[in-house]
From TrEMBL:
Residue stretches spanning the membrane: none
Domain SpoVT-AbrB intervals: 9-55
Domain of life from the UniProt record: Bacteria
Stretches of the chain forming a coiled coil according to its record: none
NCBIfam families named among the record's database cross-references: PRK09974.1 (NF007429)
MF terms (GO), sorted A to Z: DNA binding; DNA-binding transcription factor activity; toxin sequestering activity
Keywords: DNA-binding
InterPro entries the UniProt entry points to: PrlF_antitoxin, SpoVT-AbrB_dom, SpoVT-AbrB_sf
GO biological process: regulation of cell growth
Protein name: Regulator PrlF
Organism expressing this protein natively: Nitrobacter winogradskyi
Length: 113
C-alpha cells in the first residue's frame, strides 16, 4: 500500500519587524544550513510554498530561465491545473529505468554535454 503524504503544519509568529524563524522541522526537511537562502512562492489561491534556494551553475541560460518563469507564472495563475502524477505513469517510469545505474557525480562525455 502506498504511503500518503502528510502535511506538516507548524505555527510561527511574525515579529514587529515582519520576521519569523523557520521552524527546526522545516529546516531539517529542506536540509537548510546557516546562511542558506529560501524561496517563497505565492500562488493565486493564497497558498505559499517555501523551498531551499539552490545554486544553479547555468543561471545565465535565457531559455531555461524564461521557461521556468513561464511555469512559475502558470502555476500561480492556474493552481487547480496542477495534478499529481498518476500511479500508472509512475509505475511505467519505474519500469523504464529498472536496473539502470547512474553516477550523478560522473563527468559527462563530450556527446552528452
Amino acid at each position: 500500500m502506498a504511503k500518503t503524504a502528510e502535511i506538516l503544519e507548524i505555527p510561527a509568529t511574525i515579529t514587529d519587524r515582519g520576521q519569523t524563524t523557520v521552524p527546526a522541522a522545516i529546516r531539517k526537511m529542506l536540509a537548510l544550513g546557516k546562511r542558506d537562502q529560501v524561496v517563497f512562492r505565492g500562488l493565486a489561491d493564497g497558498t505559499v510554498m517555501i523551498s531551499k534556494k539552490e545554486a544553479r551553475e547555468n543561471q545565465d541560460d535565457p531559455v531555461i530561465g524564461k521557461f521556468l518563469d513561464f511555469l512559475a507564472r502558470d502555476m500561480a495563475k492556474e493552481p487547480a491545473r496542477i495534478r499529481p502524477v498518476s500511479k500508472s505513469t509512475l509505475t511505467r517510469g519505474k519500469a523504464l529505468v529498472k536496473g539502470v545505474k547512474i553516477d550523478l557525480d560522473a563527468a559527462l562525455s563530450d556527446d552528452e554535454a
